[in-house]
Design a protein that fits this description.
Helix content: 25-40%
Radius of gyration: 16 Å
Order of helices and strands: EEHEEHEHEHHEHHEHE
CATH topology: TIM Barrel
CATH architecture: Alpha-Beta Barrel
Number of domains: 1
Amino acid sequence: MENSIVYKFKNSLYINLTNRCPNLCSFCIKTKWHMDFDKYNLNLGGKEPSAREVLDALYAEMKNFKPEQIVFCGYGESTVRLPVMLDICDELKKNKYPGAIRLNTVGLGDMIWKTNIVPQLKGRIDQIYISLNSHDPAQWAALVRPAAGYEKGYDSVVQFIKDCMGNFDKVVVSTVGNVGVDTAAMKKFVESLGAEFYIREFLDKNE
C-alpha cells in the first residue's frame, strides 16, 4: 500500500505531515493499527513530505471533492514541522480555501520550539483541538508517556490552551473515553479554561 500524505475521513481531508511525536500514548492507534488507517498507509517511512508535495496532493483530491475542513492530523505531531505547516496554511489562505483549517495537537509545540507558537498559528489555523487527555499531571504522564525532556510537559500544554483562548474560532480540549480519566472533573477543568470539552472514542483494531 502506498504511503499517504493526504487522506479522506468523513467530509474532510487530513494531512499526515510527520510520524514523529513527543508522546507515545498508551491508547495511540498508530501502534495498535501498525500505522494503517482505514484504507490508508500512514507510515511515511522516515520521508516527510515538503509543503509543495502536501499542497499538490491536496489539490489533486480537491478536484473531485470539496472538504469541509483541512486537518493537520496524521500519525505524528504536526507542530514538529511547524515551518512546513505554516507554509501550507499560507498558500491555502492565499488561494482562499473556503473551509476551516484545523490543527489536532498534543499541545507540546511550545516545548518543541522553546517559544510560544500561538502568534504563528493565529490567522493561519482556524480551529485547534488539543489532546490534553487528563487534568491530573501524574495521570497525564502515565497516559501519554512523554519522551525524555517532555516529562513535565503537562504545565506547558495547559499554558498553551490558555494562550489559544480568543485566538481561534474554536478551541477544543479532549481526552479518550474508557482509560480511567474522571471525565466529569476534567470537563469542569477544561471549561474553567474557557475551552470546549470533548471525549474521543477509544478505538480498537477489533472494532
